[in-house]
Design brief:
single chain; 171 residues; mainly alpha; 6 helices; 9% strand; globular
């Protein structure tokens, strides 16, 4: 069933940011996954029903692979589930975002391409002003959450992402 409440993109970004902070995951990466999974539309009613999967919502939860997920297209439940799943993958991969994001998508070369797109193209499009506004609206200091956001004031840069063994700075 489609989500009945209408959210603005800004509200969805704030929800993604707050949920990422709650679970100690990089907000830029969560927002990058959503951006990739929805083709940049941030449509909570996005779905991908193909021969190999049935995925739904902002974080495209595969309901066949995750039968415990009952949130449907509700952005709050979809983002919460997706971020908790990403958090588990990060723990499983020793904090390596490249491997965790690839695992979020699946396996093989397409998953590695997905990871590079999320970490190098999608997550980096959220500039310092956007991230500072989200931090301000959440009431969470940009330096909290165990340093995941890094300092986003002045001339500092955002979180570093491990891409195939090398670190790329996220702006």
């Amino acid at each position: 069933m489609a989500n009945s409440k209408q959210y603005t993109k800004q509200e969805l970004m704030q929800l993604a940011y707050n949920t990422a902070i709650k679970y100690g995951v990089s907000p830029e990466v969560v927002m990058g996954i959503i951006d990739r999974e929805t083709g940049g539309s941030w449509n909570p009613n996005s779905k991908n029903y193909s021969k190999i999967e049935r995925s739904q919502g902002l974080m495209q939860i595969n309901i066949d692979a995750h039968p415990d997920y009952k949130g449907g297209y509700d952005p709050v439940q979809n983002i919460d589930y997706g971020v908790r799943y990403l958090q588990r993958l990060l723990k499983m991969h020793g904090g390596d975002y490249s491997k965790a994001v690839a695992s979020y998508n699946g396996s093989g070369s397409k998953a590695r391409e997905y990871s590079k797109d999320v970490l190098l193209n999608r997550a980096t499009k959220f500039d310092k002003n956007t991230m500072n506004n989200l931090a301000k609206n959440s009431g969470v200091s940009p330096t909290s959450s165990q340093g995941l956001l890094a300092k986003m004031q002045g001339n500092t840069t955002g979180a570093a992402a491990n891409i195939d063994g090398g670190y790329q700075q996220l702006p």
